[in-house]
Amino acid sequence: MASRMRFGGLSLESGLALHRAGKLREAAAIYGQVLQANPKHPDGLHLLGLVLHQLGDHLKADAFMSQAIRLNPSAPAYRNNHGMVFRALGMDAKAVASFRAALQLDPVNADALANLGGSLPWSSREQEARRSLRRACLLVPSHDEGLASLGAMERATGHLDRAMAAHRRALTVQPLMAARRLNVGSCLVESDRYGEAKGYLVQATLLDPALPEAWSDLGFLLMGRMQVVQAERCFRHALEIRPRHGPAWAGRAETAYVAGDALAAVQASQRAVELDPANPHLRLRLGMHRLATGDLERGWVDHDAMWRKPDAVKRIGAPPRWDGGSLEGKTLLVTADQGVGDELLFASCIPDAIRAAGRVVLECDPRLVDLFRRSFPEVFVHAYERGGTRIRPIQRYDWIPRELMPNRMIEAGAMMRWFRPTVASLDAAGTPWLTPDPVRVARMREALDQLGSGLKIGLSWRSMRLTETRNAHYPGLAPFEPLLRVPGVQFVCLQYGSDWEPELRATDAPVNVIPGLDTTADLDGVTALVAALDAVVCPSSTLGWVGAAVGTPVWLLYNTPMFLEFGTDRLPGFPTVRPYRKNQPEPWEPMLQRVATDLAGWAAQSPGAG
User: Fold this and answer.
1) Is 369 in contact with 434 (CB distance < 8 Å)?
2) Is 173 exposed, middle or buried (0-12, 13-18, 19+ CB in 10 A)?
3) Which of 38, 338, 403, 536 is deepest in the core (most CB within 10 A)?
4) Using CA atoms, how far apart are residues 393 and 160, in angstroms rounded to an integer?
5) Long-range contacts of 387-391 (CB under 8 A, 24+ apart)
6) Dist. CA 324–CA 382, nearest whole Å
7) Residue 568: DSSP 8-state
8) SS3 (DSSP) at 393
9) Distance CA 342, CA 286 (A)
10) Per-residue confidence at 4, pLDDT binned at 50, 70, 90?
11) Tens digits of residue pLDDT in 358-368
């Protein structure tokens, strides 16, 4: 963002006119003539450096701008534009210093404010960056680059609504700029507002067909709608434009994965990571793709990027992270950070942690405290104390008693790397790991007996969070219709979240509800009910891991490949889980018809069958 300046000499003005008209090489020639006449002309040196920067020759630009600043150190425009050169050279610290120097000379320089805000490390200097960008946009409400940078920063730090507002304002300033439409469309994709997003992304490709970001984001939109073939075409087109476009390689990894080719997904993910090695999301996806092929050793290492993502929990008062070394005589803190389903799943490693460490401190969702205390009596269990926001959570550890202060910490999901390094180790550890409340189990059995004869099968059909992307992994209630007609079965509702009761009433589905059980808040009660059931039929969700944890048969419905298969056609380490697999683009109905057939066979052979 070059600051506007007035120049006296006619030759310099003619060069500046060419410069403003976009005729960069012609302008460079004029500036060169000015410098032949006067090699110490500071404006000439600065402008030649600026045009060289815009032509991509940043090293020469640095040399000319450095000379200009030595001759006239008090020009804020020189400092600002020199900062842009440093940024192009990847010298971020020098860029920030240059923008700060420009603002010392001119505190209301909107360009320097916008550049500073766009160059600060957003993960650690978020508030300062936001102040700088907002001030630039207050000084110049139509500051297109400042608004775009503000939108990018808000999106990177998880504030999608604020990002959307900034990008929409930038679009009003530059309504025909493809990048501005792309930014709005990308935010809408991330918000799962695919119908609205598609128009913006298509418009971006029409305004600038050579913009690879528009094609790759359109590809991700189509992936979210399971239009895999069309998405693959978009990613390939983006790579034809720019072969080193990392997001398009990441997109090709996902199309390969959805198509069932985990090895091809690994290859494309590796390429994406090579192009953007500092991106933890790409590294995490590579880890999950590797795990799906059975490459546990490298897969778990890459999966560790989960805890380097911008939305990872910030931990205050936690000890150093465990690196797999000896824990003999030490106290290990096992932390919670993902959903309750993952806490239940990864709690299968707690017995290993108890054997490895002198003592274990376990933090968990408040709903799991009683269940975990009963299951792991040797462990000090405490509910997490979470602050911050959903997108920037903070957890503190001043609740740990002094005598139990831990020496090391590990995230619950990260224990798999150290305790489950092979499929054989997974299978060897495949035993129930949670202890339901025996009194409540007995009460649940009494409630189930009142339903009448037949198998008692727990049922859930969707996630608590409903988005277009997530819905691809959950069948909903309607496809269960063949299952619900199977004679000799009493179905029991395990669905959690909101609005599931109206679903049941609207369909008149024969699914029994246990009175007084809050399936969302009372996880100890849900665990007792699952332990009393003959089996659970559910998509990959919290209920599947509850069943596995107490040893109840689980008929798990899911899209393959899934990383927990670890290169097999089953779920190693979970012997009571019976997999029902399908490719992601396929409909749910054929799978559920198979489940209905299998359930009918089981019901016919059960005691008391007709």
Assistant:
1) no
2) middle
3) 536
4) 16
5) 388/314, 389/158, 391/157, 391/158, 391/159, 391/311
6) 24
7) S
8) strand
9) 19
10) very low
11) 999 999 999 99
- Quote the CA–CA distance of 496 and 161 in Å, as a whole number: 28
Amino acid symbol at 343: E
Tell me the pLDDT tens digit for each residue of 308-352.
988 899 999 999 999 999 999 999 999 998 889 999 999 999 999
| Alpha carbon 467 to its chain's center | 14
Question: DSSP of 480-492, one letter per residue?
Answer: GHHHHT-TTEEEE
Report the candidate in 178, 185, 149 with the shortest Cα–Cα distance to residue 166. Answer: 149
**Residue indicated by tokens 């700088």:** 132
- The overall average pLDDT reported for the chain is 93
547: which 2 tokens? 């069943």
DSSP character string of 88-107? HTT-HHHHHHHHHHHHHH-T
The label of the residue with tokens 């560790």 reads 304
Element (H, E) at 216: helix 212-224
Tell me, yes or no, if the pTM score tops 0.90.
no
What residues pair up with 456 in beta bridges, in sequence order?
490
Please identify which residue in the block is written with the tokens 């400042």. Answer: 146
Cα–Cα distances in angstroms (integers) from residue 202 to residues 50, 59, 219, 250, 525, in the given order = 34, 37, 11, 20, 49
Residue 396: strand pairing partners = 316
In degrees to the nearest 10, what's the CA dihedral of 224, 541, 368, 379?
Answer: -100
Q: Where do we find the tokens 């072969």?
A: 243
Which tokens sit at 488? 């000799």
Assigned token pair, 546: 């509850």
How many whole angstroms separate alpha carbon 84 and alpha carbon 50?
9
Rounded to a whole number of angstroms, the distance between the first and last alpha carbons of the chain is 81
344: enclosing H helix or E strand: helix 340-346
Task: Classify residue 39 as exposed, middle or buried by CB count within 10 Å of its CB (0-12, 13-18, 19+).
Answer: exposed
* Per-residue buried b or exposed e for 97-116, using 16+ beta carbons within 10 Å of the residue's own CB: bbbebbbebbeebbbbbbbb
Q: Note if the bond before 212 is cis, omega within 30 degrees.
A: no
- What percent helix, strand, coil does the chain show, rounded to 5? 60, 10, 30
Measure Cα distances from 607 to 378, 453, 455 in Å.
40, 9, 9
Among candidates 587, 585, 594, which has minimal Cα distance to 260? 585
Phi/psi zone of residue 313: left (φ > 0), alpha (ψ -120 to 50 degrees), beta?
beta
* Pair 340, 523: CB distance under 8 Å: yes
Q: Which pair of tokens denotes residue 349?
A: 């490693």
Cα–Cα dist 63/82, whole Å: 10
| Both tokens assigned to 150 | 């503000």
Output the CA–CA distances (angstroms, integers) from residue 205 to 122, 151, 183, 215, 495, in the order listed: 29, 20, 12, 7, 42
Classify the C-alpha dihedral 524-526-532-537 as positive or negative.
Answer: negative
Amino acid at 402: R
What is the amino acid identity at position 310? P
Q: What's the confidence (pLDDT) of residue 338?
A: 83
Rounded to an integer, what distance in angstroms lies between the CA atom of residue 90 and that of residue 86?
Answer: 6
